[in-house]
Specification:
By secondary structure, the protein is an alpha/beta fold. It has 17 helices and 13 strands.
Length: about 400
Amino acid sequence: MTSRRQFIKKGLLGSLGVLPLTHLSTTPSLEELKNASSDDELFALVRQQLHVPENRLYLNTGSLGPSPVVVTDAVHAMMQQLEMNPAIENWGDLGERMEKVRTKVGELINADPENVVLTRNTTEGLSLISQSLKLSKGDEILTTTHEHGGGEVGLDYLASTQGAVIKKLQMPVPAPSKEAVVEAVRSNITTKTKVVMLSHVNTLTGLKMPFEEISKITKSKGILLIADGAQAPGLVVVDVKSMGVDAYAASGHKWMLGPKETGFVFWSKELQQKINPVFTSSGLGSYSASSGTRNVALISGLGVAIDWLNVIGKEKVEKRCNEMGAYCISRLKELKSIVIISPQADSLSTGIVSFTLKEGENRKIAAELAKDNIIVKVLPKYNGIRISCHMFIVKSDIDRFIKSFSVLV
């Protein structure tokens, strides 16, 4: 196996030109990932790239993803490079690398780089849009009862400052089909609807929203369509052009496994003519007079995470996550003490699997699982538990979770 030092010199860090670190244990090289003989071998190598201890089963990427060694090494090295000559590096070599991340994001989601703004997280991206939209009193904003609070905060701001009305549709649980989801959205749109904001992948159930079909409805009515993509990039393939969205915001620190406090927002040229938040009033570049000084090491680290994801293959990652999610559901069906609330239709399902408890308290069960070094997410809304089946999860991990969980309920 290639040594850690050789990997840093020849791999992603070498291509970035950042200073190498040699204090960490041996991890798989970039070439080993490229040359894996099977998907099982590939994702076993991916697991070895994580800092998560071998005995820890991490099933909560939907909250925060564990960055691989190549990302944390790159961030550390760039921080050292920055601090050796801060002003020169911040607006010089490192600043140029940070700006290139916009192009990498554009390629990742099939967007023109000039339409991409680098943010700290999904909430910031969505809030930049909401704070500068112009609505009239009584205009309706359509969303669902399953949205994340970070996405809702901007909508609440619109309602409180401009008199807009937030309308929440009740999503079917579990959603039976793509057609049922599209019809639920269609039937709740009125002549007053001006904005529709939906999650690309729902944080509660893992439902993948059929945006392509929904955008055909909104475009014909002149309705602004916004996607909360916090849970999507790195879990599913994202193509904002095919989706037909006017705006798309996401975080880099979930399924993309990027540095914490990184993200981006895409907004179309048409939308840019309607909004102008202070943050981008001097331009959409990674640094401008209105954005102020940025964290070049973290943002550039997001670029490293994207490079690493591209080596593995985003289509291959989505396929793997779907397979592990389906296996998780198949095992959960053996239990009589739960109700699965994630969709099972192939067109709607992802690597996020959620269920409610018929008996017991989710927080207590999650705490007991944590004692076994199994980390899950509790869902207070449904007394439920959410399982994140990222590419580094294997069937034996799911079996371990089922075995520990089944004795607690």
